[in-house]
Specification:
With 192 residues, the protein is an alpha/beta fold. The protein has one domain: Rossmann fold, CATH 3.40.50. It contains five helices and twelve strands. A seven-stranded mixed β-sheet has the order 3-2-1-6-9-11-12. The protein has a three-stranded mixed β-sheet with strand order 8-7-10, covered by helices on one side. A two-stranded antiparallel ribbon has the order 4-5. A hairpin with a 5-residue loop joins strand 4 and strand 5.
Length: 192
Amino acid sequence: MIDKYTLRKQNRAKRDQLSREEVQVKCSDILERLLRLPDYMMAEDLFTYVSFGNEVDTIGLITSALLSGKRVYVPKVIDKECMEFYQINSIAELSPGTLGILEPEPRITGQMQNERKQIMIVPGLVFDEMGNRIGYGGGYYDRYFINHPNKNLNRVALAYDFQVEDVLQAEQFDIPVHRIVTEKRMMECKAK
């Protein structure tokens, strides 16, 4: 089995080699699939990363969610161990932060609330059919899920189809996603 470092490197290289046109077409297909997902349509709150480089684009998703009346929360890295989600009302409220990634000003903190219908879009470089993921290596999302448990939160990954492997070696502290949406399919995962 290929190690995490190698998988990260290979998938980042493949993703970075995509042309602007390929990214636009694939992201449009991914967004269209996500917007038809019942869990997304019913969600009152959207927690999502802000895309950077050739990641699956979330700017259109954020704009669409705001226009449809959802509360939108995006992450801000606080330190090497912690990130928090803050509510935004417009893309214009974001400014370059850690590593040049757009982040919100820390104002209204987003809380995981069991009584609200919430969905989180989770980033990553590699996923498997069980919902396991390899992120960028910081562990921010796994720690966030442990520190903010919500039994009703739907964790969804947006990925290019080549980012999905058959099986990844999961660590005990890895928190899987429930679904993966690619330009070719929407996968229900057997997340723990």
